[in-house]
Amino acid sequence: MMGTNESLSLKLQSLGADADDLELALKAVKRPFHVTAGADVIRAGDSAGRTTVLLGGMACSYKRDEAGSRRIFSFHHPGDFCDLHQFVLPERDGAIGVQALTDAVVAVIDHRDMDRLLDRPKLAVAFWRATMLEAAIYRERLTNSSRGTALERIAHLLCEQLARREAVGISGVRLPLSQIDVADAAGLSVVHVNRTIQTLRTLNVLSKANHFEAIDRKQLAYIAKFDGRYLDMPRGWTVRVDKDRFQTSGCDGHVEHGRV
Amino acid sequence: MMGTNESLSLKLQSLGADADDLELALKAVKRPFHVTAGADVIRAGDSAGRTTVLLGGMACSYKRDEAGSRRIFSFHHPGDFCDLHQFVLPERDGAIGVQALTDAVVAVIDHRDMDRLLDRPKLAVAFWRATMLEAAIYRERLTNSSRGTALERIAHLLCEQLARREAVGISGVRLPLSQIDVADAAGLSVVHVNRTIQTLRTLNVLSKANHFEAIDRKQLAYIAKFDGRYLDMPRGWTVRVDKDRFQTSGCDGHVEHGRV
DNA sequence: CGGCGGCTTGATTCGAGTCAAGAACCGTGG
DNA sequence: CCACGGTTCTTGACTCGAATCAAGCCGCCG
Predict the structure, then answer these.
(1) Does the structure show a pLDDT above 70 at A35?
(2) A22, A23, A45, B72: which has the highest count of C-beta atoms within 10 A?
(3) With contacts defined as CB-CB under 8 Å, which chain A residues touch B234?
(4) Is A142 in contact with B143 (Cβ distance < 8 A)?
(5) CB–CB of A145 and B145 under 8 A?
C-alpha cells in the first residue's frame, strides 16, 4: 500500500488530468520520505518552495489556538496535497501545520516544477479543482458542524473519511484515528466523543473494538444525513430522506471511480 | 458606490492580475442587473453556464438544512465571485444558494469567456487564488467556530467582514446585516446573538444603534483574537497577544492595498 | 514491573437553545 | 396623518447538550 502512487493517480484523474498530464505530474513528485506517527510533516511556517503530497498513511492539517490545543480542520488521505496554499498564497496562512496520524509516506513537488505543470491548462484547472474540493469539504463541515448534535457531527466526519478513502482506492471500513483526533476535528471534548462513540456502538453502527470500524455504513450515513455529492462522488454514498422513511441509496460495495 | 467596478478591480489586483489581465477580465463582466434585498441572486441548482460577480451591496452563500433553515457559510462583498465552484466543479454542490442581503448589483461572466480568460496564466492563478482565499476563510471559521464562546465567534465574524470590505475599498464601520443573518452565519440562535450583541454594546465596542456599527475596532479585534493575515491583509488588523498584555497593533485608520 | 498515553465512567457546571411574549420599527394604504 | 401587519429586536424563564473536573482502567512498551 505504501510507496506506490496509485492513490495519487486516481486523485489526479478524478480531477480531470489526462494521461499525458498524469505522467508529467507523477514525474514531478520527488524525494519520497517516511514520517512516523505523531510527527509533523510540515512544521507551521516551514515548507517554503515545495508542495507536499501524501502517498501513504493518514495525516491532518491543524492550527493551534492560544491555549496550545490542536484544532484539526482537515484530514489527509493518500493522494492529497497537504499544502497547496503555500504555493498559491505563500507566507500568509503561516499558522498551519500538518501532522502524521499514522506512519506515513510523503513526497514533494518543487514549486519550480509546479510552475511548469501549470503551463498545461488542464493541469492548472485540476489543481484549482483540488482546492475547490477542499473548499467544498470545509463548507460542508461548516454547515454541518455549528449546529447539529455530536452524534451527527461525528457520524458525518467518519462517513466523509471513508468516502474520501474509497475515492482513492482504499476501501476498508476501518479508520486509523484516535478518539483524540476525532475530538480535535469535531470540536468536541474527548470525553463526549467517547460517550458518543459508545452510543454508535450500541446502535451496532461501529464495532465494539477499540478502534474506528464501521459495521453499518448505511445507518452511519443515515445518522449523519451524509450526502457525498459534495465530494464529487459519482454516485452512492447518498442518503435520500423521502418523507420520514429510512431510505438509503448507494453504498453498494465499492464505488467505481476514474471519470475522465 | 453601486454600478462601478472599483471593488472588482481592487480585488483582481490583489489576486495578482496585471493591467492587461485586469482590462480583459473587466471586459468579460457582462449584463449587470439589480437584485432587491432578500431575493436570491442564484437559486440553488441554477446558474448554469455563467459565473456571478457581486458589484455592489452585500450577499451571502447558504445551504438549507432538512428543517429548511438557512445556514450561511459565507458573506459576499463587492468584487467577490459568488459561484466559481459552478465553473470548476459543475453540478456537484447543487444545494448552494446565494441571497442578496441588501439591494445589490451583480453581473456575470459567461463560462465561454472564462475559458478565454484562463488562457492567461496569471489570470488562471488569480482565480485559483480567489478560491484559495475562500478556503482560508472557511478554515479560519472552522477553527474559530466549533470551540470558543459566542462573544468570540460574533466578534470574529464582524472583524472579518469589516476587514474584507476595507480590502476592496469600503471603509465604513457599519455592516448592513440583521441579527438573523449573523445568527445563521455564526450557527447561534437569534436570541443568543441578541444577548451577545448587547454585551458588546455595554462594552462600548458596538454602537447602541439598532444596526451593526463598530465603534471600537481594536477592542473588537482583541475580543475576537482576530488575526487578519489569513485574509491576505498586508498589515494591520492583527492582534498581538504578547504575554497577557492588552496589545493591539495595526488598525491605524485605513489599510492601504493594491500590492501587485 | 512500572509508567504513560489513550480509553471509560461518574458528578457537576455552564453556555446556548427553545419557548413565549412584548416592544420598536418599518412600509402601505385608507 | 394615523391605523395596520409584518418583520426584526428584546427580555425572561426553563431545559438540555456538552465541557470540565476527577478518578480509575486498560494495553503497550521499555
Answers:
(1) yes
(2) B72
(3) none
(4) no
(5) yes
